[in-house]
Amino acid sequence: MAGVNTPIPSDSYKLGFIGAGKMAESIARGVVKSGLLPASRIRTAHLGSARRAAFESFGVKVVDLNNQVVEDSDVIIFSVKPQIVKEVALQLRPLLSEKQLLVSVAAGVNLADLQEWAGHNRFIRVIPNTPAAVGEAASVMSLGAAATEEDGELIAKLFGAIGKIWKADEKLFDAITGLSGSGPAYIYLAIEALADGGVAAGLPRELALGLASQTVLGAASMVSKGGKHPGQLKDDVASPGGTTIAGIHELEKGGFRGILMNAVVAAAKRSQEFSKR
Fold this sequence. Notes:
Layout lengths: L14 E4 L3 H13 L7 E4 L3 H8 L4 E3 L2 H6 L3 E4 L6 H8 L8 E4 L6 H8 L4 E5 L9 E7 L5 H12 L2 E5 L5 H9 L1 H18 L4 H22 L3 H8 L5 H11 L2 H21 L1
Parallel strand pairs: 1-2, 1-4, 2-3, 4-5, 5-6, 7-8
Antiparallel strand pairs: 6-7
Helix pairs in contact: 4-5, 7-12, 8-9
């Protein structure tokens, strides 16, 4: 069929969002801020004044209907709640063209279902996470049946504007959800607990929270940018008979590592349950 897998220009395509929530806003803001696409090439639809204002504040065109977004976009990102993806895809199906690349960021909705509902195999599924809001997302993508390597490269650039992105087989997505999808919440708990520990040791609350959050940020940067295994970095801090090894000893007695591992596995299992519904 003519037009199938037509390459999409990497610098002049129009990007549309079906759904105008926080994730869509984070992606759009990142794309504009990075210079990847000008705001004039991005559009979404919403009738609520607050959401319209959020997108219009950085130049994105907001229309009234999803149909208008589809008709004026080369790359379309479905960023709606998982429970309404089917309804929205079926509604838009008659308008979709093989020339368009479709992307879904809906949690727990697999490519096979997305492709069936949309009648369209040029689909890429992406799992981002909430740090997209500050340009530090951990995203993973999997390509659908008719998506090309060029399509994958385009989406890697797009989501690279809001953090880091990896490519993986879709069968790993439940585990990915358990780690990076739910993981920020585990780290928020850890930051809160570290700050509480600081307060218990005599620090003012504001100072304790600032130190806790910056310490986690710095440690994560050491792992992602320093090239050393986290076990080695831990050993570098823990001098013989010192303060750090005393703290690590308490964490080990409490089963700290096992608890985090169990949290990831539990969330992955829950994701698997959702995807089977």
